[in-house]
Amino acid sequence: MQHSSNPILNSAIFVPDVEAHVWEDGRIYLYGSFDIEGKMQYCSNEYHVYSSDNMIDWVDHGVSFCIDDAEWAKGSKALYAPDCAYRDGKYYLYYCVPDGRCGVAVSDCPYGPFKDVGPIEHVTMIDPAVFIDDDGQAYLYWGQFDGVRVAKLKDSMVEIDLETITQPLSVAKHEFHEGSSVKKINGKYYFTYTDTHRHGNKATSIGYAVSDNPMGDFVYQGVIVDNFGCDPQTWNNHGSIECFNGQWYVFYHRSTHGSKYSRHVCVEPITIDENGKISEVRMTTSGKEISLPANDVMPALRACELSGNARIEGDKSSCHGFAVAQIKPNDTVIFRYLHFDEENTLSITLQSDQKVRAELYIDGSYYACLSTNAEAAYTTNNIEIAPISGKHTVEFKFFGDFSEAKFSEFVFKKR
Q: Please, where in the chain does CATH 2.115.10.20 lie?
């Protein structure tokens, strides 16, 4: 049986800043920036669109738009966070470049290729987002900090009504950073964005505010998901919410490689209660699934939370092409959630320059310990443990005199 897990795309694909949309064909489409693995900069000069009919199997539709397709923006080195809207048989891609200029491109197909129309006059600062209300009126949102703005779009979908420009959120009231996204739920307008309420004003949270009007009077409600702990250097977050097959989800990204960059797209199911409140969710390994089978091999790259120096990065010596690397003594690696059926053996694959003591914790409580020898190559080590049943968080803590270790995979089995 196939299962979904985080990150939701191939691990070698890095798509941050995702705006998710379900179009007329019933598929869910992801529009985001496109990072290059290991490159110390935000985004590349192209977009890809990904779609799925089950949120397990994702189709890469190839390059949908490239900065070279925009004559007016040539010389720009990257394309920042986009959004897309559908109207009257056309798909409108709203994009931006690092200097803050925004443009629009059009296609007959949700995944392009998109043909550039040109810049949007009077729209500056990054992260354009578009919302079309039930009455057909379209709105464009853009900007950072107190430069965030919203305006009505004219019927052409490529011009704004200058007389309607207003500021919908603020730094003081909402800790707004960037990353606007608006959806309508049960008659209310939900504005999700990069929120700096936590961790000394780090932009690691996706927060939300609600209003009866798509243009203002948004009241702050709280954080939906916080990616703090996904990487030692994580700094920002950007995503959206969308309903697929009756379930609402939050899409967000997690940094890798001990950097602010190389960001994987991840997803968590969310609930909206009878009062319209969204409960905060934690980062998980299981993603859209309630939990994953403990007896399936778990690549360490699917760790949802790290502490210390440990980070997820490319590793050609790992059979998965990635590993949790540069582990130092006292570092921790967490996987949330796995379900067990009396498994009583743990196998863990590590590489280190000295002996490593790997302690297993279940739901935060010490459970077992496995000691490994110093090995220049990845080596699988086994230990018998007391049987485990039910759904749990699995955590590994590493101790010893080693200077660095790598973690490739683990699995629980019945002996």
A: 19-270
Q: Where in the sequence of the chain do the CATH 2.60.120.260 domains occur?
A: 292-413
Q: Work out the average pLDDT over 309-335.
A: 98
Q: Under CATH, what is the fold of the domain 19-270?
A: Tachylectin-2; Chain A (2.115.10)
Residue from 19, 69, 178, 289 carrying the catalytic annotation? 178
Q: What pLDDT, on the 0 to 100 scale, is given for residue 4?
A: 80
Alpha-carbon gap, residue 239 to 223, rounded angstroms: 12
The model's pLDDT over 289-310, given as tens digits with 9 standing for 90+, comes to: 999 999 999 999 999 999 999 9
pTM of the model: 0.97
* Residue type, position 40, single letter: M
Q: How confident is the model at residue 2 (pLDDT cuts 50, 70, 90)?
A: low
Contact 284, 335 (CB under 8 A): no
Annotation marks residue 296 as catalytic: no
Q: Following CA atoms 171, 176, 177, 181 in sequence, which dihedral angle do they give, to the nearest 10 degrees?
A: -150
Which one of the listed residues 17, 19, 175, 195 is annotated catalytic? 17
CATH topology of domain 292-413: Jelly Rolls (2.60.120)
Decide if 46 is catalytic.
no
